[in-house]
Specification:
The chain is α+β, with helices and mostly antiparallel strands. Helix content is 37%, strand content 13%.
Length: 195
C-alpha cells in the first residue's frame, strides 16, 4: 500500500474537488500547460496552484483518516489520563474539520494554504494527512510527486466535471474511496486549448 493506495485516494479526491470547482481546475490547467510533455521534478514541484489544491484536498479527504499510536509516557489530554503504553487514535479526519483551526472547514478553499493565511500552522497538528512528528510518513514526498504527475497529465489533456450536488458515498474497505466509482464527465481538451 505504501504510497500507491494513498496516492490513488488523493488523486480521486482531487478529481472530485476540481470537477466541482471549474475556476481552480482552469487555474491549475494554465500552470500545467506551461510544462513540456515530460515534466521534470523541478517543474512538478513548481506547480504551486496544484500544490494548494492537493493540500486542501488532503485536508478535506485524508487518505488515512485515523492513525493508531501508543502513548510513550503517562499523558493527560483535556483532563483525561492516558497511561504509558495505551493504544490511542489520532483522527486527521476530525482535526482537519475543526472550526477552531480552520475558517469554514467544510468549504473547499485552497487559498487557506497560501503564505498570507497558512491556516495549517494554526496548531502543530492542525494539518496531518501524513501523520506528524517522528512518525510522519516517509512516502509523503513520493506520494505528493506521484499525485502531481498524474493530475498534471490529466489537466494537460482533459477537462472534467462532477455534478455539484453529488456527495460521494465513501467506503472504507482499506482507504476511503467513492463506493459508486465517482461519476465524472471527462472530455479531451481541444487542440487549441492544449497549446
Amino acid at each position: 500500500m505504501a504510497a500507491h493506495d494513498t496516492t490513488t485516494s488523493t488523486v480521486t479526491s482531487m478529481v472530485y474537488e476540481l470537477g466541482r470547482d471549474r475556476e481552480w481546475q482552469e487555474r491549475c490547467r494554465r500552470q500545467c500547460l506551461e510544462l513540456g510533455p515530460s515534466p521534470t521534478l523541478a517543474e512538478l514541484e513548481g506547480l504551486t496552484d496544484l500544490d494548494l489544491v492537493m493540500k486542501e484536498t488532503l485536508r478535506l479527504h485524508p487518505p488515512v483518516p485515523v492513525l493508531a499510536r501508543r502513548a510513550v509516557k503517562d499523558t493527560e489530554v483535556l483532563g483525561v489520563m492516558i497511561p504509558k503504553g495505551r493504544l490511542v487514535s489520532v483522527m486527521p479526519l476530525l482535526s482537519h474539520h475543526m472550526p477552531e483551526y480552520w475558517t469554514d472547514p467544510e468549504l473547499f478553499d485552497p487559498e487557506r494554504f497560501t503564505e498570507g493565511r497558512r491556516e495549517d500552522k494554526s496548531h502543530r497538528y492542525a494539518w496531518e494527512p501524513f501523520g506528524g512528528g517522528v512518525h510522519k510518513c516517509l512516502g509523503m514526498i513520493f506520494a505528493n510527486l506521484e499525485s502531481k504527475l498524474v493530475l498534471s497529465a490529466l489537466l494537460r489533456h482533459f477537462e472534467w466535471s462532477v455534478p455539484l450536488d453529488y456527495v460521494p458515498p465513501m467506503k472504507n474497505d482499506s482507504l476511503p474511496f467513492p463506493g459508486d466509482g465517482l461519476p465524472v464527465s471527462l472530455r479531451p481538451l481541444t487542440p487549441a486549448r492544449t497549446g
